[in-house]
Structure prediction request, 376 residues.
Amino acid sequence: MSVETISPVAGPDSRLSRSGRSIRTVAGVLADGTACYAPFGEVVVVDGALVTCHLCGRSLRSVTAHLKAHGWTKAAYCEAFGLERDQSLEGPPTRKLRAAALTARLVFDASIQEGSAVGRERARAGGLTRDAARAARGRPLPEQRRRKALRSLAGVSPAAVARANTRRARQRLAEVAAAAARRAGYPDIRALVLARAADGASLAAISREAGLHKDWMSRHLGEIDPAAAAAVRPLRPDRWDAGWRPALRRLGFPDVASYLRERHTVQHQTISAIAAEAGLSQHAVVSALRRHQLDRTPHAAKRHASVQRAAGVAAGLGFASMADYLTRRRAAGWTWSAIAAESGQPPSWIRRQAVACGLIALGPGGRARAGGHPRR
Prediction:
């Protein structure tokens, strides 16, 4: 719809031409120095029938026909003075006369009927809308349109504006998600996320693969597709084990927990040995032990070898355990030196076994207490 501003006839700052018509004084100057005799971005209608020319200030029934006298076209005129391209530059009576003449031609003129039919068909098919959008792309918003939009927005409540902005934002997110899914070869964003999450990919990795910001899925998936967000949430803990899968397939283990239990708890392999075998960092191994609630044993290989050595020495002397052997020998009055000589082990090793069995109490600084008599 065109916008018209009704102005009073020939105000105090107006003067009369020789023909007696009102000529308005200069209302402004364009950037190129062209004088403007009517407000920028407005069409001034005088006496309800005449339109003021921005270029000379004359009030005319049709400024469109008058522009030839200035050597201007309507398109250049509307663009220069901030008017919409479809803005009529004629007074209401003149427009009514033209409409009546066109109505008669629509009835009797075959060429007009044919052109009208073509136009209506293009309008139904959306061709006119697409052409208008293409023509408006990159063109600055006319001042007249901007003022009309501001007047319209003035009557809209802030809550309604916020709701409209929210709807547009959600629509935009949905369009971005659909385009990302198509680029990846999936029918929709849910199929993309569930397929990649099942392979162990994180939401950040999925976002990067889709050409989006790494946090895009984390921020917007719950809003775009709540069902997909709820479905992928239980899969997220498994993604921490994604890096283990090649090693598990190579070594023949079904999951990380069984592999770590076998290597660390049963075989007493160290963290560094497990990391080297799996091709991961020691930090990843420690994190996996904690995640699967398995106890970590520092120096597992050395401690296991020490236990095996103690069991072998006790068995060689005919005792069930090292604790049983040391307890009986000390009860019989044997000195630590005599016990070391009998077992064939260094005295320091015997003392460590005694500490482990609780036969020697350690004092401050890790030294044996006097009551233990470790050197006797």
